[in-house]
Amino acid sequence: MVDTIATPGLWLGFALFVIVAIAVDLFALERKGAHQVTAKEALGWSLLWVGMALVFNLLLWWWLDQHGGREIANQKAAEFLTGYVIEKSLSVDNIFVFLLLFTAFAVPAQLQKRALIIGVIGAVALRVVMILIGAWLIARFHWLLYVFGAFLLITGLRMLVSTEKEPDLEKNPILRWMRGHLSITPGYAGNALTLLKDGKRWFTPLFLVVALIGITDAVFAVDSIPAIFAVTTDPFIVMTSNIFAVLGLRALYFLLADMASRFHLLKVGLAFVLAFIGSKMLIVPWVKIPVGASLAVVGVLLGGSILASLFIKPR
After folding, report:
1. Considering the domain boundaries, does residue 98 fall inside one?
2. pLDDT tens across 248-260, in order?
3. Predicted local confidence at residue 169, as pLDDT
4. Burial label, 10 (beta-carbon count in 10 A; 0-12, 13-18, 19+)
């Protein structure tokens, strides 16, 4: 049995919120059409998503304070905030890969927004399935937390070693398979992902980009979802903090894309975050690190890497 503070009403309410949020995002996309997202627009959307996450956390605290007591309310609110910060931080690594994909495929700026919103929808669906499976497995086999911890520690150390290595898209087996088995148009065709030409189905480069965005998020979800289970095993907190971080991913991309090169040491900070979380999961039988202390450590690691990027020039 999976322990959670959520009632069926809370689950339903959050599900409706996600559906409405995605619908509003799609409506805004269709209303403005294909256009280049400005830094001002990206900042506005980013602040809106962060604000909604904080308001949700406040409402959750208030509801728990009324129905479960102040101690539970404080604990769950801290768990949500810590999980949200971790997931939001790890999503920055996605942005570096998205930037690489858009550059490699020369995706026009006005088409990048559509590619990202499709990727976000796929990411939400994928993470819902993965979180539910992960929560069920941990409830049945608690020792999997230590497996997750070891995996995150190793992943963090590997990321630390390869921070300056750029992934080679041409060696990506999935991309090579798609190019070898699908008919690819030589150029973009507006917003279209596929075309029917002379009775034959053709796929545009935008389809390849969207497919690779989905695959990239699946790979990163393998890191980020175990990371939040180090903070809490409550599936409702895991789900809500994760989805809120993903919903703001599109706006965060356009906000940070032009500044990615300035924060070249951010990957080092993310590597240390993963290593810290993995270590925390491994030592939990002997040392239990409070949620507030975990949030502080993550903040110091990320803030320190950003500040260091401003003073240390990349090689």
Report:
1. yes
2. 887 777 777 666 6
3. 59
4. middle
